[in-house]
Amino acid sequence: SLAVLQALEDGLKKADADPSVKAVMICGDNGKFSAGADIRGFSSPKRQGIPLGPIVSLIESSEKPVVAAIEGVALGGGLEVALGCHYRVAHVKARMGLPEVTIGLLPGAEGTQRLPRLIGVPAALDMITTGKHIPATEALKLGLVDEIVEENTIEAAVRLANKV
Known about the structure:
It comes from Aegithalos caudatus (Long-tailed tit). By secondary structure, this protein is an alpha/beta fold. It has a single domain (2-162), classed as 2-enoyl-CoA Hydratase, Chain A, domain 1 (Alpha-Beta Complex). It is 43% helix and 16% strand. The strands form two sheets. It has a four-stranded parallel beta sheet, with helices on both faces. A three-stranded mixed beta sheet has the order 3-5-6. Helix 2 (52-60) links the parallel strand 1 and strand 2. It starts with a helix and ends with a helix.
């Protein structure tokens, strides 16, 4: 939603400007990272606010480490947000993917560029062109996530952020 995008932008800019902040952790709410964009908003004649692509670039360009704590799902724009992060920790039951192709859309926030850089062209093409969701265990094998945990994902992401 536009409110989430604005909160991400504001939070990242505030964290980057605050010398007491050493790292940033991005998580979802209620056990879900993000299922991506609300497609109902695509039909709005005037979308106000910042688009997702520049937010993901803002995450990626942060001088402070940014860690994604992925619980539940990271799909579409949600996965693109995670791809912009420097590190990704996922709960063992999490699933990731770019399903928008199944409704005739291509990932629009540079996921088609970031995913191949991270996991290689063959695996990325498979995910991008099929809309396939992958479990955290496969994401770890591919290099999409840095760590999978069975415990509290947010605590694990904070530990990783403190370590890096």
